[in-house]
Write a structure and sequence with these properties.
250 residues; alpha/beta; Rossmann fold; six-stranded mixed sheet; 12 strands; globular
Length: 250
């Protein structure tokens, strides 16, 4: 069965029995207040955390049935933060995304070099390739780390707040890139804070206190009653060209 799927995932931490599937060629946006379990769910679906109950399946097989390299060719994860090799050049950081194909001692071939060049260009980071990671701004670093995830040419992409630190122009570029990847058959699951970005996805899933409380098309999920329950009574929703537009009253 195609897809990346969490089935009855409970624990660690906040998760309380979550079922969520991402299909190839589909973008699913994951919303929810802080502490609702969004990052934990991504880490479980990436194989970085083990659930107390339930399981994750990748293309019909339990995730743990894959070796780390085989899993890395299918599935890439962009975390929200963490320690990174500040002393490496940007191009070297992105080349780390090819490790699932090379192993620890493998030699790069033409396909690897092409994948790295494509990933840098796609993420808008090609002009940074000769810079040290530690010299970059937050937005520049975010684009480089996205390029590293893309370098594996994964079938499924898990992104934890991919537009963090990016200005409005580069946020739009990331959204356009996600749409292009999805059109090529990549399945994307992205944690987002902005419901207006989530409105551009195929499906929206909403976590609250570790439970999936809503899932479906953006127009069906991004409603005033639900969003007010998450973000406060000032939230308003208007439909513009069939898509919900979320704003604060006053």
């Amino acid at each position: 069965m195609d897809g990346l799927e969490a089935r009855g995932v409970a624990g660690p931490f906040a998760l309380k029995g979550v079922d969520l599937r991402v299909r190839p060629g589909e973008w699913v946006a994951l919303l929810g207040p802080n502490g609702s379990g969004k990052t934990t769910l991504l880490r479980v679906m990436a194989g970085l955390l083990k659930p107390k109950r339930g399981a994750v399946y990748l293309e019909g097989k339990p995730l743990e049935a894959y070796g780390s390299y085989a899993r890395g060719r299918l599935l890439a994860y962009l975390p929200q933060g963490g320690p990174y090799p500040e002393g490496l050049l940007v191009e070297e950081v992105v080349r780390l995304g090819r490790l699932p194909y090379l192993g620890l001692w493998g030699r790069e071939g033409e396909a690897d070099l092409e994948a790295v060049a494509w990933a840098l260009e796609a993420a808008g980071a090609a002009h940074l390739k000769g810079r040290l990671l530690g010299t970059l701004s937050g937005g520049e670093r975010q684009r480089v780390l996205l390029a590293r995830a893309l370098a594996a040419r994964p079938r499924y992409l898990l992104l934890d707040e991919p537009t963090t630190y990016l200005d409005l122009e580069h946020q739009g570029e990331v959204v356009a890139l996600l749409r292009a990847l999805v059109a090529r058959g990549v399945g994307v699951l992205s944690v987002l804070h902005d419901p207006n970005q989530a409105a551009l996805a195929h499906r929206v899933a909403v976590l609250r206190e570790g439970r999936l409380v809503a899932e479906g098309a953006p127009w069906a999920v991004l409603t005033e009653p639900l969003l007010r329950g998450l973000y406060g009574r000032r939230v308003r929703v208007a439909l513009l060209e069939g898509r919900p537009h979320v704003y604060l009253d006053g």
